[in-house]
Amino acid sequence: MEASLRLVYRRLHTVWLRSSQRSKRDIASVAAAQHRLQDIYHQPPEKSLPVSLPPPQSSTSSTIPPTQRLKDAKPFSHFLTDNFHRQHTYLRISVTERCNLRCTYCMPAAGVPLSPPAHLLTTPEIVYLSDLFVGQGVTKIRLTGGEPTVRKDILPLMHEIGQLRNKGLKELCLTTNGISLHRKLDAMVDAGLTGVNLSLDTLDPYQFQIMTRRKGFDAVIKSLERILEMNSLGAGIKLKLNVVVMRGVNEHEIVPFVELGKDKDIEIRFIEYMPFDGNKWSQQKMLSYKEMVAIIRGKHPGLCRLQEGDRSETSKTWQVPGFRGKIGFITSMTENFCGTCNRLRITADGNLKVCLFGNSEVSLRDLLRQENNGEPIDWAALKALTQVKMDRQQGVSGSTGPLGYGERERGLLEIIGMAVKRKKERHAGIGQLENMKNRPMILIGG
Fold it and tell me: N or C: which end of the chain has fewer CB within 10 A?
């Protein structure tokens, strides 16, 4: 037990050293961890952390007139702004098409044809594209799948993306089924993980096997408990539990899920069942947002909606008075939130999707690989290509383009910009979506 506590403490110490802004809550959490070790084992931890508040930092921005700050502000990327003035600051990257579950709403019963390995983005390619998007104003990256934790090099990949914090990245998140998360969570936090969306559609182990066509319920719960344990020690992982609700399948579990948040700092997000290729969607199986609210109010009549903090947030947030946790509803089918959408997606095979429900895609992979004779880019190839970029920056190659951007970057940004400009004002609704051709959800990325 002592070794386990010390491991947790070392992880927190890494997070502490990495953070540039430490709140009173952070300091209190670290101090509590120190005292816990001292009280139990009557000895100090391996390394003592400062537990006093740092002196307030002077801020020059407070002395600059607001008009001057607006004048000096860097304009948001033209390439990531669509024709409806939506600025896309959130990038979701699918890092694998593989999954260790077979959820009925995500994976067709017959499975899906997997892309050849050479068609999938390599880790250097994902890092390169992440860097490019962050340079244009993306502040949040979410890694999805398939199941991202089954990717063999997921930890080095997260570490590389985590380094983009010094270029403007604020959040590095993960959407996962939780089967193997508990074994990798500590290392992921060290790499920069800030948020986890954990998919769990039932609290019944037997129903879990029916809905996922696999075993693994206990492993998911272990991952959930591990996140809550680390957060109790100050890790600060933003935790959301994603629940896809289907009529006649799991709507009777809505209230039990809500009551998970009575004493736990967790957001339970109920998702309207959405149509994708092969998931046998029907309107009769879809339970609407308003029906879910009515079910919860039947047990908790005081349920109330909270004021939205972030306009681009996908969920409508509610809370039961007296509960620590919150409730969210993702209402893609009955009340879309297209007007404030700030999300872009890159599939595992390198295609850019500007809308989850859109069937138009553009390959970033093919353009990226042109200078490498169409072959996958490994670290050695990326280093060589990056050297060309550095030479341009230093004027060695006599480039006439913008500093820091060669033909490859300019070409990618032009393609990205054209795709973003083609994004529609809103996606289709019920009666159209189910008849449109789209990828299975597992090949898009959750």
Answer: N
